[in-house]
Amino acid sequence: MSEFDTVKTQLHQARSTINDAVAITQQAYSSTDDKKSRLEQLGVAATAQALDLALEKLREALEQLASARGETDKAAETLDKVPDTAPIPDVIAILGTTVSTLGTTKISIDTSGESVKGAMEQAQLAGTEGIVNLCHDASSTIDGARQGAQTAINAVNGYQKRLETEAQELEGLSSEASQPRANPTPMSTPQATVSSSRGRTQVSKPHPAADGRATFGTSTSRNYKKTFFDKHPDTEGKVVVHHAVEQKTLKLYQGAVTESEMHSYENLRGIPKGETNNRVHLSAIRMSWNEFYRDNPSPTKQQLLDHATKVDNEYGHQFNPPIR
């Protein structure tokens, strides 16, 4: 089984756990409705009223679970339609949209869980042990759906990361093969300084975005890693080079940004390798951009830069060199 097939399997499993949650919650709703009707016939108004409130909460939970199921179905169908021959940039963009969709799914599941807990509290006040037990079962299956959604998010994120790394490596190799290696930058230039008789220490200049806003420049090379490390040689081997306005926008919003602007030094960021890169870029920043893509079907160049500035303001102090 390929890695992509594994990702799709995780997504289908998430959909299955949501279906289980819907079935059990529906059972709790139907039983509560029947119990309420019987109590009303017996004239036990106070208990019936408590169960009426429980019904309202269970109805809310079912609505949220229906929304979660719809979002997950849409994501699964989209991935199922991706052909094996699809270009990597297209797959990366689809995976980004899928993560955003699953993020919305998880929020809906969380909300449904809170609603079921509210129903359980009302059933406890009514003293209806059978309804309490059904609500407890519904809550447990919703927890399973929540975990299923998170597992799918992790799988999609991991595969997206691997494809992005692969694409960047291929792009770098292509650029290096097609362009002669420039001579080392003279040490008299502003890009580096010499210090200490014990050896050479290369010190980075501040990044231009540190002045306050994300901007684009122009670049004549697609080898953006070399562009960045020529400016910050002391960070080579220590950081992963990323784009402030993400590369996928070239495909998502064709014409909004030129390739020269995308790979310009001004649009590049260094994020320390390892835990910081995983936590900041592959999780927090990626989720932020995925939300932007979802909410902005046709953004302007300035809107892209404004969001990059927002990301810099939130996370730039962890970059190397720091942005804020």
What is the string of helix and strand elements? HHHHHEHHEHH
CATH architecture designation of the largest domain: Up-down Bundle
The main sheet comes to: 2 strands, antiparallel
Radius of gyration: 26 Å
Structural class: mainly alpha
Content of β-strand: under 5%
Q: Class of the largest domain in CATH?
A: Mainly Alpha
Instruction: Return the CATH topology of the largest domain.
Output: Four Helix Bundle (Hemerythrin (Met), subunit A)
**Oligomeric state of the chains in view:** single chain
Uncertain stretches = 173-204
Number of domains: 2
Average predicted local confidence, pLDDT: 83
Q: Name the helicity range.
A: 55-70%
Number of helices: 9
Number of strands: 2
Keywords: Coiled coil
Notable characteristics:
two-stranded antiparallel sheet; 2 domains; 324 residues; single chain; Four Helix Bundle (Hemerythrin (Met), subunit A); 2 strands; mainly alpha; coiled coil; elongated
